[in-house]
Amino acid sequence: MKKPTEQQFSEWAGGIRRSDQRAFDELFRSFYPVLVRFSLRYVHNRTASKDIVQDCFVSLWQTRQRIDPSRSLKSYLYMMVRNRALNEIRDHSGVDVNHELARDQQRNQPPEEYTEDENESSRLGKVMSIWIDQLPNRQKEAFCLSRFDGLDHDEIADVMNVSPKTVNNHIVAALSSLRDRYAQYEDNI
Amino acid sequence: MADKTSESPDKNIPRDVLLSFDEGERGRIKEIWQAVEADGLAAEHVSTDETDRALADLHIRMDFKDKTDRIAGYIYTYGRLAAAAVALIVIGAAFFLIPQSVEAPLGEMAVVSLPDGSTAELNSGSIVQFNRLFGITNRNLSLNGEAYFDVETSDKPFRVAANGTVTEVLGTSFNVRSWSDHPLNETDVAVEEGTVKFYPQQYALNAVILQEKNQSRWHTGLNLPEDPSEVDMERVTGWRERKFIFYEESLQQIFREVERRFNLTIELQNRDVATETLTGYYGEVGSPESLLNDICTVAGLSYSKTANGYRVY
User: Fold this and answer.
1) What are B217-232's pLDDT values in tens digits?
2) Euclidean distance between CA atoms B110 and B152, whole angstroms
């Protein structure tokens, strides 16, 4: 799906402030899948992620009069989802232990496990995602928001509540460590 | 940001990041940036269908009801065009363009004789609107609710606009159900006699043609109405004999229908069950209570009386 533009976001923000259900529905349709995928990066559970995003939209509507037109609605939504996802992890950290274990096992599987018919580039892609998953949390967050969500430094700074400079540092650190692991990987082949 | 990287964020590495690396390293870093596949992390797919369902649930959860009269469509667009014309010509002409509406009050039904000789039977709480030139220059009307139309044959097409759809005929009888408070703006059309053309307002080319005993449906998110399929007309038009017939209908919609038909309020406290569906046939319904009793038994719910209706939990 095509990504909505900044202008679309500010039109939606204006519409929702005026209690325009249609604007709200449009925003939901185009942005719900993005936010569910975003939430899945924190909460590795589809149902929980959907609930989180659903709650964010409910709260957006309930507080629509207080939407700040000068702020980016996009970052605001990312921020809401992130906060809720982090709360969810905090509140239910015990619940998903098994799930986490399963995931750890999965991601520690060596690349050799992959079947031979895969070509080199898709294999590299898979290995890369394992490495990304193992980055320190903040680095991983900033890197993914930049690479996969296409947010700029200012927006990521808003979402993560840090300065744009810090965002840049996180991404640079992430790329440096990916570079090192890639070099190792190449040596081993 | 006026950063040129924002044009295709998936492809380009942000400039600030790239500049943080030594010049000799930049090629390598770019390569890594590209090699990262959205794959493992972003591969989880969320379908349009899932999104639509989530939105419908959200509407139910927030109890969105239409506060505005969202009888959209022809009259509205026509009215806007007309506004410009009226400014130029005579103000008196406006009289002809002011929509007339006819409504079946809650708890009752109504039969409307239209100026062209056609009739519309309205289910409780339904409303049709048309302008004063109906039957003279056009046969366009808007519907919010459910109606059974018996249309006089004429060379002017008879059009029903409802929830972003148009049902178009020359002469025939058919049923349209299209409540503006439906979470997905669903519109159901079923044909008793003759042939009907049915299409979403925005994609007039995506029409389906319905023959006798055919039905089709459109809801928000579909480009094309569903393929025509055979339908039992008695099930569709049972409401005309005051029967209650539900076919895989959500509890939310069933309770709305009960509210309208008996002019009462049903408070569904357990909103989680609102999306559950039910099929049922009730020929003669003496009181709302006997109907509620049945539905609640089947759905495993309880109810109690309130000042203006019932509470279901």
Assistant:
1) 998 878 889 999 999 8
2) 19
